[in-house]
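S2.1 Query sequence (phenylalanine--tRNA ligase)
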Amino acid sequence: MAEKSPASDVEAGLLAHLNSAGEVSDSRSFASSLGVSHLELESVIKSLSAFRIVDRTDVIKETWVLTDEAKGYAAKGSPEAQLVDAIPPEGASKDALKAKLGDAFDVGMKAAARNKWIGFEKGNKDLVLRKVENVKDELQDQLKRLANGEVVPDRVIDDLKRRKLITKEKSIWYSLKKGPEFVLKRKILATDVTTEHLRSGDWKFLEFKDYNYGAQGQPIAKGYVHPLMEVREAIEYIFITMGFAEMPTNNYVESSFWNFDALFQPQQHPARDSHDTFFLKAPAATKLLPEDYLEKVKQIHQSGGYGSKGYGYDWKREEAEKNLLRTHTTAVSARMLYKLAQEKPFAPKRYYSIDRVFRNEAVDRTHLAEFHQIEGLICDYGLTLGDLIGVLEDFFSSLGMSKLRFKPAYNPYTEPSMEIFSYHDGLKKWVEIGNSGMFRPEMLLPMGLPEGVNVIAWGLSLERPTMILYGIDNIRDLFGPKVDFNLIKNSPICRLGM
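Output structure tokens follow.
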């Protein structure tokens, strides 16, 4: 037969006492009467309470207790009293007193001087003299009273806290009564059917513990979607519900022709400088450009056309052939519009893309050298700036960003152009989240698109809307070693919007 466990003895003693006395007013004193620690009794109380065999009432009390330093002062006296007691009638040097008192010397010197219990020989600050015959050690008396559980005034508590001689301690104990399911001895309920039960037939007579359908299961080890991917999926869904088709964005390396020239951006533009753009060393250039279209773009840049005066400079093919890491996905839009222009008859289209772009920028809390750009465009007859503003408001409101402002801007390939701002509650300011505009005729007509066809377009980063929606104030927290995995694991799809 298995020996009875100490816990079963404690449980039996507790139930027997409740059966006869009806209650336990203080679990601490009852634990002492059983000769066990309160911790052992507490585990039994919680188990019986869970089965409603006992009713427990939690009693919580916060008390001030002495620190180890204060306990020493309560036993030996305060530092200032020890110091005065150590000074002989003729006085003593500081070094002699420090050797005798140790760590209590510095504290005792300050307190004794403040109480005017000590003084110094004139002309000799090293010799400490007693100025009183006897001292009343109030600090020792206060500490002893507090240790004995006596009530002391609040001003004394404040002084002891200031000197870091006391700390607050929380005590928890219980008062107990019989519960609605009280029994003198509880049954041991079975939790599993074993092979031995099946062989012997005991399973027919077993009483099983109720199954807890509300219990939490073990956490499932699984991956979590990054906030950028959450917002990306939401944005893709918005585009699809608005009738947009996705553009192919599988070419990170782009030619300067599609990245700049086709967008009516002059070859001397500052964006083409190596301080703003990553150019490739190998392969440094491409020859795969549409010749007929290239000649039209060259003509527009040099001398204009389609109502434009152009830029009036000597356009160089070698500049257009340079390879680079694309600075925007608008290069993809240029390719798609050129392809659309070759399809006859013309049919209106809506396109979008979300992918990485690269710019040679200094990294700070709102800028990265590599980030995601979201691009959307609508190509149709008779589109206006009002259509663009309406589409942008619909798009961003679906994303949960209703605080929008538009500011006139300049882009080489759009006219009119607008910067888009949204209010960031974390940064407490308006943050630029995108750019927009209507593509210029000088860009569209050389492609072969019909007269009267307009294109409204906008681009924004994926990172800044994510920051706004998740309340993140530093873009670097979304990438690299600073990523907070608890944010990824615990955040809903978007904390502030969506």
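DSSP finds 19 helices and 15 strands in the chain. Residues 31 and 41 are 6 Å apart (CA to CA).
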